[in-house]
Amino acid sequence: EVQLVESGGGMVQPGGSLRLSCAASGFTFSGRDMSWVRQAPGKPPEWVSRLSDGGAIYYADSVKGRFTISKDSAADMVFLSINSLKPEDTALYYCVIPWNYWGQGTQVTVSS
Prior knowledge:
Layout: E1 3-7, E2 10-12, E3 18-25, E4 34-39, E5 46-51, E6 57-59, E7 67-72, E8 77-82, E9 91-97, E10 101-102, E11 106-110
Parallel strand pairs: 2-11
Antiparallel strand pairs: 1-3, 3-8, 4-5, 4-9, 5-6, 7-8, 9-10, 9-11
């Protein structure tokens, strides 16, 4: 069974940083792209970043330069480092194997 479990969210002030983690089990990273998607209250899901199996990395314009996606294949972990947080980054962040498998999400709240 494929499982994705996110962690690392929290409440931070504007300008702060967080590192989100996604622990994967039940599958191998080989041949798989990984993505992060976020959903703010009352809004549809927004794709944030994608790391392809071949190592190509893509970011939404809204997070480019502030977010960094990475993975540790040996540990079956995917990460999203978030810097210079803004209130509009407040959302539930999901780790996704596009597009069939989603974690339960980890909440990021940016507020002063």
